[in-house]
Amino acid sequence: MEKAKVYFTRDISSEGLVRIYEALNIDLKGRVGVKISTGELGGHNYLKPELIKDLVQKLNGTIIECNTAYRGKRFNTADHYKVIEEHGFTKIAPVDIMDEEGEIEIPVNYDGHLKGINIVGSHIKNYDSCLMLSHFKGHAMGGFGGALKNMSIGMASTNGKAWIHSVGITKDPDDMWHYTSDQDGFLESMAEADKAIVEYFGKTNLVYINVLNNLSIDCDCDSNPHDPEMKDIGIYASIDPVAIDKCSYDTIINSEDIGKESLINRMNEKHAIHTVEEAERLGLGTTNYEIIDLDLR
User: Fold this and answer.
1) Domain ranges of the chain
2) Strand duo 62-65 + 95-97: pairing
3) CA 242 to CA 4: how far, in whole Å?
4) How far are the Cα atoms of 74, 134, 261 from residue 100, in angstroms, in the given order?
5) From CA 208, how far away is CA 15, in angstroms rounded?
């Protein structure tokens, strides 16, 4: 397979985000959703509004999210909107919690753990294209969170998140915790959900950006995340979700930063790379990539 292009800049700024998006030479058409994590109340590592504002507005985009499957401050819509407002996102763009009016099932065209079903917020129907704008960092369950997690768990409704986490056993978010022992099955379920989203929008209507800053071992869903031990790295962008996550992972593994050990241990402990491997096997992209460094141009 031809190498996927992954663009890179060390410039973690609003200007850097716009520049790297423009380097892709992709025009996201129609009604554009910008999928981010709005961050749990008390957390502080999420992508800040002042960082993403210029790009979101350039796309005339709507920030999109779904409610969580754990009973935190983003479990129900009313509380979630309060967190979104407190974190400043409503000041820069429209915000849509996609499962506030329910959910729909979209097909997973694969006979796997999810039994052919991915459950997403019903408002997905309001968007023609999507930017997966992801904060790459560690994660207590997935090992790391990047484009593939943002597109799978992130686009799933509360019940859909339970469906993925439980490896297709339950849609009940309170019951799912009884079915989280199959780690590889969970990672494979995320890849299946990714397949459903890619096929729903079409590959040409999706763009992926990973921001490698505030590199905590914990996710933005953590209200008290561990302090980052690595220095900020930069921004990657691609039209290939497999390549961008593999590149982000490789960057951590190959880094000369002495603070990388905790994050690598977290990723290895949870076999995080397996989601990437499975997504490649399902035809969503390739781990064979080349980096195009915009700072050298």
Assistant:
1) 4-296
2) parallel
3) 9
4) 11, 22, 39
5) 17
3-state secondary structure 127-143: CCEEEEEEECEEECCCE
CB atoms within 10 A of CB 48: 18
Enter the CATH code of domain 4-296: 3.40.50
Contact partners, residue 182, CB within 8 Å, separation at least 6 = 167
| pTM of the predicted model over 0.85 | yes
What is the pLDDT tens value at each position of the chain, 297 positions in all?
Answer: 689 999 999 999 999 999 999 999 999 999 999 999 999 888 888 999 999 999 999 999 999 999 999 888 888 999 999 999 999 999 999 999 999 999 999 999 999 999 999 999 999 999 999 999 999 999 999 999 999 999 999 999 999 999 999 999 999 999 999 999 999 999 999 999 999 999 999 999 999 999 999 999 987 776 677 889 999 999 999 999 999 999 999 999 999 999 999 999 999 999 999 999 999 999 999 999 999 999 997
- The CA-CA-CA angle for residues 200, 202, 207, to 5°, reads 110
Q: Chain-centre distance of CA 83, in angstroms?
A: 19
What DSSP element (H or E) covers 5? strand 4-9
Residue showing tokens 């210029």? 54
Residue type, 176: M
